[in-house]
Write a structure and sequence with these properties.
The structure is a single chain. About 20% of the residues lie in helices and about 45% in strands. The N and C termini lie far apart (about 40 Å). It is an alpha+beta fold and about 140 residues long.
Length: about 140
């Protein structure tokens, strides 16, 4: 029964993340022009990270830039980091969602988006079944 709840939670989180990435991609295309806004006209080096509390186990991570998600599954441990990704010029934003199983009801999970060596966005979750996400617009 627990495994079935976890599978439903993981699937639901994955669907929500994909929908958010799709909406971000569509909205980025709706206002295309020749004038870059903020840092959108440059390339960026992006790293996604997750840190779970002691005794917790990270299961799956979905991350990407604009509408290009990557899924890292069958993960284990209390920390995870993506490889460094270089965005294309004009990329709109970055998204990450990570699921984990906590050691107890007071467990925590933190996800981070690092852009060009600086922490830009952070999301957190707490409880036994952990699901944290974050998104950042360049």
């Amino acid at each position: 029964m627990k495994k079935m709840k976890l599978n439903h939670l993981l699937r639901g989180t994955f669907v929500v993340l994909l929908a958010a990435m799709f909406i971000g991609f569509v909205s980025s295309c709706s206002s295309d022009d020749d004038n870059p806004v903020n840092g959108a006209g440059k390339q960026h080096k992006v790293v996604f990270k997750a840190i779970a509390s002691s005794g917790s186990n990270i299961d799956v991570a979905v991350y990407g830039i604009d509408g290009n998600p990557t899924t890292a599954s069958s993960l284990s441990g209390e920390t995870w980091s993506s490889p460094e990704i270089t965005s294309e010029k004009g990329a709109y934003g970055a998204n990450v969602a990570v699921n984990a199983i906590g050691a107890s009801a007071s467990s925590t999970l933190k996800v981070q988006i690092w852009v060009d060596g600086e922490l830009k966005k952070e999301g957190t979750s707490s409880g036994q079944y952990l699901s944290a996400s974050a998104s950042y617009t360049f």
